[in-house]
Design a protein that fits this description.
This is Type II toxin-antitoxin system prevent-host-death family antitoxin. It comes from Phormidium yuhuli AB48. This protein is 18% helix and 19% strand. A 3-stranded mixed beta sheet has the order 1-2-3. It has 2 helices and 3 strands.
Length: 74
């Protein structure tokens, strides 16, 4: 965790944001108040696109058929 004064942070803000994307927590201090910069989804580029697993997952035709092991409970 890096703690830095606002006046020192402003010239290197782009660098600090890149470090946050890499997983580091950055604390910026101004007037005795602290702001934390951190990556919400570290290591993730973006959420998966809808349909990106098309033809990757196969569901059997009898997926919802009753199971023999549970016949006594039906």
């Amino acid at each position: 965790m890096k703690m830095i004064d606002i006046n020192q942070a402003l010239p290197q803000l782009s660098n600090l944001i890149e470090r946050a994307f890499a997983g580091e927590e950055i604390l910026i201090i101004k007037n005795q108040q602290t702001i934390k910069i951190t990556c919400v989804n570290p290591g993730h580029q973006r959420p998966p696109l809808f349909g990106s697993d098309k033809d990757q997952i196969i569901i059997a035709d009898d997926f919802d058929a009753p199971l023999d092991e549970f016949k006594e409970y039906q």
